[in-house]
Prior knowledge:
The complex is a heterodimer. By secondary structure, chain A is α/β, with parallel strands linked by helices. Chain A has helices at residues 2-19, 24-27, 43-58, 106-118, 136-142, 177-195, 223-233, 251-259, 274-299, 332-345, 391-400; strands at residues 67-68, 75-79, 121-128, 152-156, 172-173, 203-205, 208-213, 219-220, 236-240, 262-264, 304-306, 308-309, 312-313, 327-328, 357-359. In chain A, the strands form 3 sheets. In chain A, strands 1, 2, 3, 4, 6, 7, 9, 10, 11, 12 and 15 form an 11-stranded mixed beta sheet that branches. The longest helix of chain A has 26 residues, at 274-299. Chain B has helices at residues 2-21, 35-40, 78-83, 270-273; strands at residues 62-68, 72-76, 96-102, 108-113, 116-127, 135-147, 150-168, 173-192, 198-217, 227-246, 250-263, 277-289, 298-307, 319-320, 323-330. Classes of the chains: A alpha/beta, B mainly beta. Chain A binds chain B through residues 275, 279, 282-283, 286, 290, 293-294, 296-297, 300, 302, 330-331, 333-334, 336-337, 339-341, 343-344, 347-348, 398-399, and chain B through 84, 167, 169-172, 174, 214, 216, 218-221, 224-225, 227-231, 265-269, 273. Chain A: Residues 1-20 form the signal peptide.
Amino acid sequence: xxxxxxxxxxxxxxxxxxxxxxxxxxxxxxxxxxxxxxxxxxxxxxxxxxxxxxxxxxxxxxxxxxxxxxxxxxxxxxxxxxxxxxxxxxxxxxxxxxxxxxxxxxxxxxxxxxxxxxxxxxxxxxxxxxxxxxxxxxxxxxxxxxxxxxxxxxxxxxxxxxxxxxxxxxxxxxxxxxxxxxxxxxxxxxxxxxxxxxxxxxxxxxxxxxxxxxxxxxxxxxxxxxxxxxxxxxxxxxxxxxxxxxxxxxxxxxxxxxxxxxxxxxxxxxxxxxxxxxxxxxxxxxxxxxxxxxxxxxxxxxxxxxxxxxxxxxxxxxxxxxxxxxxxxxxxxxxxxxxxxxxxxxxxxxxxxxxxxxxxxxxxxxxxxxxxxxxxxxxxxxxxxxxxxxxxxxxxxxxxxxx
Amino acid sequence: xxxxxxxxxxxxxxxxxxxxxxxxxxxxxxxxxxxxxxxxxxxxxxxxxxxxxxxxxxxxxxxxxxxxxxxxxxxxxxxxxxxxxxxxxxxxxxxxxxxxxxxxxxxxxxxxxxxxxxxxxxxxxxxxxxxxxxxxxxxxxxxxxxxxxxxxxxxxxxxxxxxxxxxxxxxxxxxxxxxxxxxxxxxxxxxxxxxxxxxxxxxxxxxxxxxxxxxxxxxxxxxxxxxxxxxxxxxxxxxxxxxxxxxxxxxxxxxxxxxxxxxxxxxxxxxxxxxxxxxxxxxxxxxxxxxxxxxxxxxxxxxxxxxxxxxxxxxxxxxxxxxxxxxxxxx
Lengths: 403, 331
């Protein structure tokens, strides 16, 4: 310990001499000034950050002393750094939580967190991309990484707006050496600049920090070996998605599923019949649990399986048009039935008392449970339950508000 | 092994004793000569004898209809249904519950000739005073055939139990149903006649599947699907020894059976999926009494069962309780 501290101070001293203090603000990506390099921090704070970073560089933690997933009680709220565009949204949050054409302000994120906790949320899932062009890292920094939400982990946006090839949408060939390097760089960035500095609030499984890949099924090629490489270097717990709808058949798919550490769907999909969708999801979950059990028998590895709650699906306002059918429950009882099935499966089909995952603030696809305005288009009508206001949150609180 | 030997010895002793008491009529020899029998039985052979009936009454096929009188059945406890752990078997928490069933009885039909016997039982019953209303439908078929001393047999079963409103969650109740089926075949040896007195030893292998499902009752939503709660398959391996001695007004049988259940898809974690290997071991005695010599049609049967394990067969179907009484009609 003493040796490490001594070495740390020595390296800091040498760095200061070699680089000069002005260059340090650009070195630390934990600083909101990273993107702009405005240099408006004073010299003292820069030195403090530099000391922290260098110390972090000297000793990469082998385990994350964060919040163990098994101790998180309540649903998992996915929150977003996106702008609210009314013309393309089918959920319209109240202005206290989100203003049109803006990202939620730090105060509004704090209010969102307060609401999440009030309605039984246990942890936040932060939509996150390390791609500096998006500026999401700095955005989350400005909110203290949603410090009002308590425990959190990252949803790594690995499909849209990435530095992978192709950049937007579509599967990524992870056998491609360039894509492999981008993935490693992204994980390294997230580990050093989010997970380690915020580890006291970061959600972990047995000391391994959770990173959620919302569509791991689109990471094609030899993704498995890459996951293993990264996990050998960093204590990361990868949760994938989109895998459970059919048993993997190809060798690369099987290997990817084995290399992932857990599964949690982002969406139940867009179907015209809500009841059909939730029942299909339940049936697929049962089959997937059987698959995971068999896998565990063969490999000895236990995979986590977390349920997903979805209130609706409506992306009809997104431009360009997607032509997906809208999906609303016919009554509030159908949504409660969905929650009831999830709850009764926790501990058998799904892992005990973790989740469900809930889209809290994605406004474009109509699933967001955030407190919303009751407009003409979002009012309940006979045969169509939308759940404006806090109706969706009330259901979550009733079924999953364990705290 | 000691138990098996002990059982066989007791059967032989019992047989000897019961033959010694039946002096009213000469005991009838089994179809196949057996050394142990000829030692104790001396046929009456005198020169004045008329030609004997080649098929004495006792050697005729037997046909029994057993009507259960005792209403007690062993079944799995309500907690196991709510916890979704029926498929774990009896290896974890206590799981057996005795319920009083009524309604349609589960009769048993037995047909036996010297080298063949068949047993069929089944029916529909409903609990009368339990907290959960259980409707049980089950059927059980056993066939045994022997050529010389070699015994070949098979059994099959089907069971279904439905429990409306078995669980209550936050807003809605849910019905529960479990269904099981299976069977096994065996090879063994037989000494004696099935319709008289006999000893058999059997080794069998088979398969059983059980699945539980639920359906929520949501008042405003129709046509909800039924969802699987569990589905388990087991390989079965069994060993049993059975003996029966029959006299004029009483017959006694003893059966010792050991059954091993092995999960087809192994469980990686006993706490989450149950033990991979489960076992049943039981001793069953059946005493048949003919109280009215002039009305041999009516008989009483008392069956006592002692389980030495956790009665894991309850995973599949409900079982009689440890004491059961039948009214037997012998044709």
